[in-house]
Amino acid sequence: GHDLMLAVDISASMQAVDFSTQTKTVSRLDATKDVVSQFVLGRQGDRIGLVAFGEKAYLHVPLTLDTLSVSKMLNQMVPGMAGNATAIGDAIGLGVRTLRERPEGSRVLVLLTDGEDNSSSVPPLEAAKIAKQYGIRIYTIGVGKNGNVPFPNGHGGYQMMRVTIDEGLLKEIAATTGGQYFLATDRKALESIYKKIDALEKTESNQNVYLIREPLYAYPLGAALALLLLLTLFQILRSLFRRRIASGI
Fold it and tell me: Which helix (H) or strand (E) is 4 found in, with range?
């Protein structure tokens, strides 16, 4: 299986509700949690880990085969939980530190963010170069629309605020490590992106099928016993019939 580290931006800007529909208010993080949870649950046989990052990066879930636990921990995250800024370089660095001990050829980092790096202690491109040295592919995803987007104002309404995605940086990170960059401006696009990544990093596995042999001797044995019982009964009845005849004579 693969070793997949998912780095998810939970900075304050992930509260933007530009993923809303006509009937439902949906934030960037809400849409991300729904789509990534489906992706995680479909990766049976892979080790999945989760890095949450905002102003700082944290290893939220170490690499594990328990995809259900990863999904639950992902859904418990809230915007601003790791600070309001964005530390893309630190998230990559933490992912590299976790993945570098895993077997070569299976190390993958999927990084999702909606902003610009503004609080990393490790420059993102330097972290990407280190990832390349360890053979770690990085898929980067920019989520949301560039420019003015609606944010909750804390009073039941919304206000427009400007958010900028550093697409140039995300493209360069992906190109450096042999990955790809994607942009998702709505839920449908985000679902399509994770399906593409799922196909690109598909796990090949050998399945052993064990056949339990079912003994069939009971069937002919049962038939033979039934026949023997009938023959025995026939002999008894025949013997009784002969005695009755003999007694009558």
Answer: strand 3-9
